[in-house]
Amino acid sequence: MLKISFIAHDRKKEEMVNFVTAYESVFAPHELYSTGTTGTRIMEKTNLQIQRFMSGPLGGDQQIGALVAQNEMDLIIFLRDPLMAQPHEPDIIALLRLCDVQGIPVATNVATAELLVRALARGDFAWRELVHKYKPGVDQP
């Protein structure tokens, strides 16, 4: 079971709901997280249970980032709106940087999300189980 987060900017929320609905059966066996409104909207349209954090601008991105920093997140789907300025842009950049540092796959558009979810469905994320079993810098496989 992997830990997966969903984040979507306002103009991308509908797209996120449609995407998660299409892949509900793939996401169902996993531990799911989301920022506030995005998670609520997904749960209204699916049977998925999602642990919701605060709204992104109120710290939800940072709450997910804290899990990433501890290497406790396996996949993030973050549908960003590149055409709209975000007041919490520094938080967004920090989250993406943490994903790069920890090697956490992150999709920022539906095309990349589609590739990652298809890999998830095939079982291509088994390497993340090793990450959880052997903490880098602590244990040696």
TrEMBL record:
Binding site for substrate: H9, K13, T35, G36, T37, T38, S55, G56, H88
A Gene Ontology biological process term: methylglyoxal biosynthetic process
Enzyme Commission no: 4.2.3.3
Superkingdom, taxonomy of origin: Bacteria
Entry GO CC: cytosol
Domain spans labelled MGS-like: 1-141
UniProt function note: Catalyzes the formation of methylglyoxal from dihydroxyacetone phosphate.
Protein's name according to its UniProt entry: Methylglyoxal synthase
